[in-house]
Amino acid sequence: MALFRTAEIIKASKLPPEGVKLSRMIDAIYFIPIAYFGVFATFHMHFDLLAGDWDFWIDWKDRQFWVTVTPIVEVMYPGAIMYYFWTFYRQPFGATLSITGLLVGKWITIVLAWYWWANFPANFVMPATMVSSALILDCTLLLTRSWMLTAIFGVWAFAMMFNPSNYPLFAYSHQPVVVDGQLLSLADYMGFTFVRTGTPEYIRIIEVGSLRTFGGHTVWISAFFSAFISMLMFTIWWQVGHFVGQSFFWVKGKRGVRYRKNDIMIVGTDEYALRHGTLPGVPAPVLEGKS
């Protein structure tokens, strides 16, 4: 099956060549710049409000809270976007679109605000990546064609892949260093060197909690917990997408009773409309040899 059903959509719409040209112009103006930039702008704001500090500073990228909070927050927005693209267009790239849009927004902030304006080193405020996790999530939806199986298996892999995919980027920051007789990690030393605002949200002790009772396996215990909460968050936000972006039309049954059908793809056929009837005042389509 072709990935994009452009020819079928144009044929079903019965648009003249001028209408097809105008439709593609609208796509080029709306869907590419406005929709994509709107996705990364709103997702960026959503992520910064809920998990910003854990992904702003390298000394906050610890083995406990960073591994737990980041996947939970990053799976929310893709859940709603995935519903929209999968239900209406059968396109399995909602998560990848969302995550890449978030990274575009974060790198704009890093370059313009943190690096050029505030003079922080780029590696001190470099964001984590979840592109590999997003690809796994989209592939799970494509292969299973079920949002429930995607929430169970795909989201679990989405959260569990977070630490392995980011370890090559930030492992150097966990190296020990002795400064004035005090043992620190390289990330902590950078945090002490580049002083930030002194509000209470930035004054915390890294990795303080009860997870040490699990034999010191902090990362994987946090990842498992994050995976289960991410399943719940994905399910909730999938339903948010269902509530906000619902598509429906009215169908007349065999007994003349009209009922509402939800979550219908935008591509239909004249035969389907004739078979199920149309609403009063809406002209029925005319097929070749039929009326």
The gross shape turns out to be elongated
Total helical segments? 11
Separation of the first and last Cα atoms: 32 Å
- The parts where pLDDT drops under 50 for at least 5 residues are 265-269, 284-291
Order of SSEs:
HHHHHHHHEEHHEEH
Please tell me the total number of domains.
2
Which strand order do you get reading across the main beta sheet?
1-2
Strand content of the residues, in percent? 5-15%
Output the CATH homologous superfamily of the largest domain. Answer: Ammonia/particulate methane monooxygenase, subunit A
Question: Can you characterise this structure?
Answer:
The protein is 59% helix and 6% strand. Helix 2 (17-56) runs antiparallel to helix 3 (65-74). Mean pLDDT is 78; it is low at 265-269 and 284-291. With 291 residues, it is mainly alpha-helical. 29% of the residues are buried. The chain is elongated, with a radius of gyration of 25 Å. Strand 3 (248-252) and strand 4 (258-262) form a beta hairpin. It has a two-stranded antiparallel ribbon with strand order 1-2. The protein has a two-stranded antiparallel sheet with strand order 3-4. The longest helix has 40 residues, at 17-56. It is built from eleven helices and four strands. It folds into two domains: 6-244, Up-down Bundle (particulate methane monooxygenase, chain B), CATH 1.20.1450; 247-279, no CATH class.
